[in-house]
Every structure is written in C-alpha cells, then in structure tokens.
Specification:
Structural class: alpha+beta
Helix content: 40-55%
CATH topology: Cytochrome-c3 Hydrogenase, chain B
CATH architecture: Orthogonal Bundle
CATH superfamily: Cytochrome-c3 Hydrogenase, chain B
Order of helices and strands: EEEHHHHHHEEHEEEEEEEEHHHEEEHHHH
Strand order of the largest sheet: 8-7-6-13
Largest sheet: 4 strands, mixed
Shape: globular
Number of strands: 16
Number of domains: 1
Radius of gyration: 22 Å
Number of helices: 14
C-alpha cells in the first residue's frame, strides 16, 4: 500500500494506492454535524451548518434557510432574494480567486521562486526577503522543475499579490452584507437582514470595481499555466456527466438567475429533476436497526465489511456525476448570449473542446476563472437592482413555529449542494447534507461505479511511488477544489 498526504486542502487528505493500482481517498471520521443538529431550534441550522466549510459557508446558510422556507411556505421579498444572490456571488468569487492562487498555483510554481521577486508589491517583497538565502528544500522536500521564465514568475507573483488585495476587499464586502465572514449572520428565515442604504451600495460598487482587474488577470494566468503544462487538458478527466442544481433566485426571471440547473449526460443537456439518493455500500454507515422518525438517518459503522470511506456516495438517477464550475458553465452555454456567450466561447477556445466534454484539470481550473469574470459583472447588475428602503425580510417569518419538512438545492463554489430537513414543533428532527466534495469525493456505489475524483485519478494511471505522478495526483485533487470538511458531516 502506497500513501500520499496532500496539503493545501481544508481538513487534510491522504491518498492510498493498493497493489491493483486503485487510488482511494483516506479521511478522518466525520464530526457528526448532521446528528448534532437534532433537537436544535429550526433556525439554528442556518448558522450551525456553516461549519461544513469556509468556502461553502454562505451556500450552506442559504440552503438551510431555504429548507425552512420550503417547510413554511414563506415567500421572500425581492430585496431579500437579491441580497442572497449577491452574497453567494461574492462568496463564490472569493473562493475561486483563493483556490487558484493559494491552493492550486503552488502545484506549478514553487514558492521558493518568489525569492527572486523584483516587483513593487510590499507583501510579495516581504516574502522574497524571507526566502532569500534559503535553499529550495526549505519549501519543498523535493525539487519541482517548472517551465516559467523569470518574467512570467514576476507576473504571477504580481497577480498573486493583487489577488490577495482583492480577497481582502471581498472579505470586507461580505462582512458588510453578512455581518461577518466566513460565517455570515444576516441570512435569516424569510430573507436577509441587511439595512440597505444608498451609501452602502455606493461603497460596494466602488469596492467591486477594485476587484474586477484581479478576476481578469486570474483568467490570463490560468491560460498561461494551461499553455505551459499542455498535459493538463487531458489529465484527470472523470469521464462522467455533469450536474448543476441551481438556480438561486428561482423566483426571478430566468435571465436574472445566478446559476443554471441541468444535467449533461452523453454530451446532451437534460432538465434537472428528482432522483437524487445516497449509496453507503462502501461507506462506513448503515441504516439503524430501529428508527423512530427523529435523529440521524444513518448510523456510523467503522467496522463495516467492504467499506473504505467516511464519505457517502450521492447519485442522481443512479448515476455518479461531476459537479463544480465546469458543470455550471457547460449547462449555461447552450442558452448563453451577448457578453456571457463571448466569455464561454473564449473558454472553449482555450480548452480546445466543448465544455460538455472538457472534464480535466485545465477544464476545471479555467472554468472557475471564467466564472469569476462572469460573477464580477453579475454582482454589478445585482447592486443596480437593489432598492434601499424596501423590505429585505418577510414580515411573517419571525412568528412561525415550523412543523414539516423541506429540501433545497443551491450551488456552492465547488459544486452542487442539497440540504433536507424535518421539523417538529419548531425543532429539528433530522437533517441531511449532500455537499460538493461529497459528490466529487464519493466512494464506489453498489454497482462499483466510483465518484468523479476517484475516476479522475484512475484515468491518469498514476503510480504514487513516482515523484511526477504524486505531483499529478495533487493537481487532480486540487482541480476539484476538494475539501474534506465539506465532504464529511
């Protein structure tokens, strides 16, 4: 058995390769978040489920609030819905920039190269001073050759410094709208508790303008990386269909929704409907012998025969699917027009393949960076549509003691998310979460079909004893923006 511990992943992750070459994800045990929600007040799920991951905290809060609203039938005021869409757009933009420059780029450009930085950004200058005189092994146990020229290294360092400034600005914007960040407090049953003023909107517009250049530079940097590492366009393909569960903003006209809903299967677009289930054939869970109707849906079974993962295996109409920005853009492309269509055409040209068949490290990386550019424009549109002085929360929401159940689908930065909850007299009776990394990181199901990440690793035919293959495995995992915390509940 060969093992590989990976870094720059929320929650940590290791890969194990058996003698037959199969690579499996190895994680710790779940924290029992779903079980700990039982008996809590209905609205507490909005805040407690944000523990499932920093990048997806806003999406978890939105999904939990939508479950409450499905169970009660409460309708959101337009301002409340627009604010939620804006929060999700900003959080997704923040996650995409952070993932590329902090989690992904070190797989291609060693940090030690920043020692030669001669640019003007103070933060990068500080890193360069700290690195001077240190051997490359200080930052990496093994040397990592790369094809970047000195000028390209300088450019990427400058872009990274600008991205850090943009991330700081985005965090301030999200804190203004969410109360704080990454855990947001303004999402409440029935809307979004943000006092809208003209002054706030003016400040947000100005801050958004300062962020836009970083999104444009990020796509150019992604194209540079994909061009210098041509293998990325064929590395890590899952070979399966794509899923996007959107849209947030289902009560808005279709032209104003943030993210589309649909399934790409066999290269064709299908409508997203019912048929989502979870397999635990190879997961350390089993159905309880007796269940009264409240409490966890599954019981831990760490000694279960044939199991090898604490991650459940979501399936849509019995099919494993890949989720993420690539899936969203592939679903969006057939109906796209104007500037959106132009950006998607640029992405298709850069990848040299239609988005429906572009599952690869390069496809996922460039799709996120293209979506970042789309989100900047979408945020500007949303800021123009908000109406200061109008309600942001449904008046009747605070007086309801909910009994019933509901489910809600929403997109997170890394892909599709579903929450399902049952309420009894204002308390949570049971809760179930299907998160993006649960989809992508799932083990095999009862048919033997793996999840997208396992399939992508298998398609690369890697030998984790080889240095180049270990680096390729890291690139594949990071291309999914995988988070162990997000995958385990």
């Amino acid at each position: 058995m060969t093992a590989l511990a990976l870094t720059r992943i929320e929650g940590g992750l290791a890969l194990e390769q058996a003698g037959d070459g199969a690579i499996r994800l190895v994680t710790g045990a779940p924290r029992g978040l779903e079980a700990r929600l039982t008996g809590r007040a209905a609205a507490e799920a909005i805040y407690l489920t944000q523990q499932a991951g920093a990048d997806a905290a806003v999406s978890h809060a939105l999904a939990a609030a939508m479950v409450w609203e499905k169970a009660t039938g409460v309708a959101l005021p337009r301002n409340g819905l627009l604010l939620r869409v804006l929060l999700l757009a900003l959080a997704t933009l923040h996650a995409h920039l952070r993932q590329f420059y902090v989690q992904g780029l070190p797989d291609y450009l060693p940090w030690a190269e920043l020692a030669a930085y001669r640019g003007s950004l103070p933060e990068v200058q500080r890193i360069a001073r700290a690195l001077k005189g240190r051997p490359a092994a200080y930052w990496a146990r093994q040397p990592q050759p790369h094809p970047f020229s000195p000028a390209q290294v300088e450019r990427l360092a400058d872009s990274q410094g600008q991205a850090v400034e943009a991330l700081d600005t985005l965090q301030r914007m999200l804190a203004r709208l969410g109360g704080k960040f990454p855990v947001v407090m303004s999402i409440v049953p029935g809307g979004c508790a943000v006092p809208l003023t003209d002054a706030l909107l003016i400040e947000l517009r100005q801050e958004l303008q300062s962020v836009a250049p970083a999104a444009g530079s990020a796509f150019e940097d992604g194209v540079l990386v994909a061009g210098l590492f041509p293998r990325l366009k064929n590395l890590g393909g899952s070979g399966m269909g794509l899923l996007s569960v959107g849209p947030l903003g289902e009560d808005l006209p279709s032209s104003q929704t943030l993210m589309p809903a649909g399934v790409i299967a066999g290269g064709r677009l299908e409508a997203f409907g019912s048929g989502m289930a979870e397999s635990v054939t190879h997961s350390f869970y089993e159905l309880p012998a007796q269940r009264t109707g409240s409490g966890p849906l599954l019981a831990p079974a760490p000694d279960k025969a044939g199991a090898y993962s604490w991650i459940k295996a979501p399936r849509y109409q019995r099919r494993p699917l890949e989720v993420g920005a690539l899936a969203r853009l592939a679903v969006l492309q057939p109906a796209a027009s104007g500037a959106t269509a132009d950006l998607l055409d640029e992405l298709t040209h850069a990848l040299g393949a239609p988005l429906s068949g572009a599952s690869s490290v390069a496809g996922r990386m460039l799709a996120r960076l293209t979506e970042a550019r789309l989100l900047v424009r979408r945020c500007g549109e949303l800021l123009e549509q908000l109406a200061p002085g109008q309600p942001t929360v449904a008046a009747e929401a605070g007086r309801m003691r909910v009994t019933g159940e509901g489910s809600a689908d929403v997109e997170a930065s890394a892909g599709s998310l579903r929450h399902r909850g049952v309420f009894e007299r204002g308390k949570i009776a049971s809760w179930d979460i299907v998160a993006p990394s649960t989809w992508n990181g799932s083990p095999r199901d009862e048919t033997g079909a793996p999840g997208a990440l396992e399939a992508a690793l298998a398609s690369a035919a890697l030998d984790l004893r080889q240095r180049d293959d270990r680096l390729a495995a890291s690139r594949i995992v990071h291309s999914f923006a995988f988070s162990t915390i997000d995958a385990l509940h």
